[in-house]
Amino acid sequence: MYFCIFFAILMNVFNIDNISVLDAKTVVTVGMFDGVHLGHRQLISHLLALSATTGLTPFVVTFDRHPRQVLDPSSPLSLLSTRDERLALLESCGVPNVAMVHFDKDTASLSACDFAARFLCGRLNMRMLLLGYDNSFGSRRNNDFAQLPQLAASENFDIRNDEAVLMDGIDISSTKIRRLLQQGDIRRANAMLGAPYSVCGTVAHGRHIGTSLGFPTANLQPDDPSKLLPAAGVYALRATIGGKAYVAMANLGTQPTFHQNHNELEVHLLDFNEDIYGFRLQVEFVDRIRDIRTFASPDELVAQLHVDRETAISIVNK
Predict the structure, then answer these.
(1) Which of 118, 120, 140, 297 is the 20 to 30 A CA-CA neighbour of 20?
(2) How many domains does the chain fold into?
(3) Same domain, yes or no: 151 and 269
(4) Is 23 within a domain?
């Protein structure tokens, strides 16, 4: 499941530059782990199993920023999880140790063998490297990933490979999940994630249109502007505030009936009537109900909202 971060991460999170060579020998896997989907979860399960059978200390090595945010800043990348969400999700999978690499242009220039020698062997005392089915790291320009077996022989570590996790014959990846969310295919995205896609943020004042219609909404401002929002539409949600969960529905996008052309995430919590401006709110996208439409009158919109309400209840409580 996803987490709105109200608590400290309890697992060990290290800045890899602050680690001198570990005394403990380690088994390591490397990746961005955006979304910590079912493929990542299998990889982590494999990592922990190898640790149990070999006695090696398990480490997940990840990055403080997505490489594309550094290598191609002119092409914005929306992410499935914020840094804190990634850490919370990794912890929920049982990961005891994470080493965080600061990704910048210097890091990007390292070849795979240089990266492994400097960080994985030089800092983490790695004795086993577990690679995901499509895993690679290191500079594309200085691409020596294929030479890792030679480095393994000289630095005395083993390499193991994980298999892809397939769904309907398609290998699960963060890229595919982002595409599904951008298409509004919440069900398939959630199935690949292994949990409902979640967004956390703060409730801000909006135009109060929903209140005038009898459907007051919380204007949710996501914590991180790089957090991916699904395609525009009306959604069935599960909303959590103050530790309590509610059935909810949301209009994500514009409000053309009222000539409002700004994209906003407006959340209506069912059977809830409290002032929550400034509060933290988490929403889980359960399914998409319909497209956004322009209605002939506010009364026609209200009639549709009552239908949407019943649809949201049936979806979330299924």
Answers:
(1) 140
(2) 2
(3) no
(4) yes
Whether 152 and 212 share a structural domain? no
Residue 216 lies in a domain: yes
CA-CA distance, 193 to 2, in Å (whole number)? 10
74, amino acid identity:
S
Domain co-membership, 18 together with 159 = yes
Query: Residues 161, 44: one domain?
Result: yes
Token pair, residue 248, equals: 């909810």
Same domain, 49 and 166: yes
For residue 137, what is the domain's CATH number?
Answer: 3.40.50.620
What's the domain range around 249? 197-316
- Tens of pLDDT along the chain (318 residues) come to 555 544 456 899 999 999 989 999 999 999 999 999 999 999 999 999 999 999 999 999 999 999 888 888 888 789 999 999 999 999 999 999 999 999 999 999 999 999 999 999 999 999 999 999 888 888 777 789 999 999 999 999 999 999 999 999 999 999 999 999 999 999 999 999 999 999 999 999 877 677 778 899 999 999 999 999 999 999 999 999 989 999 999 999 988 888 777 789 999 999 998 889 999 999 999 999 999 999 999 999 999 999 999 999 999 998
Q: Residues 193, 230: contact at Cβ < 8 Å?
A: no
Residues 24 and 165 occupy one common structural domain: yes
